[in-house]
Amino acid sequence: MEKTGVLYAGKAKTVHTTADKDLMVLEFRNDTSAFDGERIELLDNKGRVNNLFNGFVMEKLQEAGIETHFVRLLSDHESLVRNLKMLTVECVVRNRAAGSLVRRLGVVEGMELNPPIFEFFLKNDELHDPMINDAHILTFGWATLEQIAEMKVLTLRVNEVLKKLFADGDLILVDYKLEFGVFDGRVVLGDEFSPDGCRLWDAKTMEKMDKDRFRQGLGDVVESYMEVGRRIGVQF
Fold first, then answer.
1. Quick one: pLDDT at residue 215?
2. CATH code, 85-221
3. What is the CATH T-level fold of the domain 3-82, as seen in this structure?
4. Fewer CB within 10 Å, N side or C side of the chain?
5. Which pTM was predicted?
6. In sequence order, which residues have a C-beta less than 8 Å from that of residue 185 and are 6 or more positions away?
C-alpha cells in the first residue's frame, strides 16, 4: 500500500494517508515517551516489536468478534488500518491497583479489583489527560450516549479476552487503555494494544514487564516486551 502523505505524527507512531480514503498506514517508531511527552528516548527495535505485538493482539480480538481498525501487517514497522474518526476519550480498565489509582486513592499497589474499575479520560497532553465522566462527554459533545455505552461494552469484552490470553502466559493484565473511533457509523477499536498502553506483571514474581520499566528506569524495556510477546505466541 503506497503512502501519500503524513496525516499525524504522535509521540511513538506516525499515521500516513493512502490513495484509499478508508485506509491508512500506521507506522510504529522507536520513540518511547513518558510523562505526557516530557521524557522521550529512542529504543532500538521497539517499533518493530510493538507493531508485531499489536497485530497479534488485534487479530485475537477480531477472532473473538471485536471489530478493530487493523487490516494486516505491511512490514516490520507498518500496519494497514481503517481510517476511523477517532473519539477524543480514552477508556481504561483496571484489574489491579497501580499507577494513578494508587496515587489518587491511597490504595495498596497490586490490590485485586473486583469488579474491574472502568474510567474515562480526556485525550489531552497539555491537560495531562484528566479523568472525566459520562456527563462531561455528553455535555461537551465528545461522544453520544450510544457511543459511550458501546465503548464500555467493548472495553470490558476486551478485558475478558485478554485477561485469559495473558494469564495463559503466566502474566497479569493489571490495567490498560483503549481508544475508539467511528467507521461507517460503528464504534471500532483503534490505536494500538502493546505494552506501551497497558501494565503487565509476571504472575509468579510480580515483575513489571511493561512501559513502567521505562518510566521507573528499570531497564530491559524492549527485552521485556518481547518476553511478554513470546509467552502469548507472538512471532518476532
1. 94
2. 3.30.470.20
3. Phosphorylase Kinase; domain 1 (3.30.200)
4. C
5. 0.95
6. none
